Amino acid sequence: METEIVSINRTDTPESIDRKLSRAGEIIKQGGLVAFPTETVYGLGGDALNPQSSRKIYAAKGRPGDNPLIVHIADMEHLGRIVSRIPEKAEKLAEAFWPGPLTMIFEKSKLVPYETTGGLDTVAVRMPSHRLARLFIEKAGGYIAAPSANLSGKPSPTTAKYVIQDMDGRIDMIIDAQGVEIGLESTIVDMTGDIPMILRPGYITQEMLSRAVGETDMDVTIFDSSSAQAPKAPGMKYRHYAPKGELVIVEGEPQKVVRYINEQTAFYRAQGKRTGIIGTDELIADYCADSIKNAGSRNDSRAVARQLYTFLREFDDEGIDYMYAQSFAESFEDRGFGQAVMNRLLKAAGHKVVKV
Ligand code: TXA
Ligand code: MG
Predict the structure, then answer these.
(1) Which residues of 149-180 are buried (b: 16+ CB within 10 A; e: fewer)?
(2) Distance 157 CA to ligand 2 centre (A)
(3) Of the candidates 11, 60, 203, 298, which lies 20 to 30 Å from 342 by C-alpha distance?
(4) pLDDT score of 245 more than 90
(5) Confidence (pTM)
């Protein structure tokens, strides 16, 4: 399949944007697939109400069919058609955080095919804030099923370059545009019980949610890798966001962390292996490795989030065999979002943490 790559940038006029997104919307209406930017990560979109489109999404990603998709909407009016009930707390959360990086789980209506929900009677819904994403959803008829636009098992793409790397030849169109600012996937909250339950941490933190609706819970499996329970979001059970090489997180006093990491990289380099480090401003000058990535200030969880997946992808491109990252667990000032960043880093590392 020939994949059309459409750039939208500052030189575009409202008319040219309209023309490009109308074409993208037409592809969706005809059952095709279009990758598009959102404020969190790039999505791989298809018509959420067309079972064939959802099947194509699974095939393009190489994703297991029991891992449900998020339905993206641009208009609150559309929510009522795809869910069987809108709990009062969900209305409050929508008012507080939509459009934005929040996904809510509802009981689904008949309109949503099981192909989209991975066989579940519930449906995940998000209203993104990215301006082009919203226009695109409108042009496509209002309901876009979209997982992250990566091949299954790879980090979610935050730049068009990596969407192209994974999806060129597999889908109809890729929209290349700015505005993927957060860099981590949306917060997922299950609204089907009395107390909203966080299934995946993200930019919208537990504290923010609780401020809007009172008590909230967190799925215990998120931070406990040894939990015997299955995660409530089916996708959280898969080894996700993983680079090709081995990633280890190192926790401890800064100077000890540096010493440990440098010993490890020296050891592997002596064997002809390639090594990489994710560090921050404070320690970056002290590290030795083949590839060193600076995530910015240790306290700035947003900067780390924005770059994390790109770093992991770059390590793959550079053929890095062994990677190390300082732990950010203790350093972020905003604990809530810091937790979300650590959650993704721990997953990428397969929960390998060394304490020094
Ligand atoms: O930020 C995001 O959420 C991005 C952008 C494109 O919107 N999308 C995204 O989709 O991250 P994906 O498919 O990579 O992750 C969706 C997660 C999976 O872990 C899936 O299991 C969970 O949402 N999920 C979807 N529907 C669900 C449901 N009905 N019940 C429980 N979990 C659900
Ligand atoms: Mg994903």
Answers:
(1) bbbbebbbbbbbebbbbbbeebbbbbbbbeeb
(2) 9
(3) 60
(4) yes
(5) 0.95
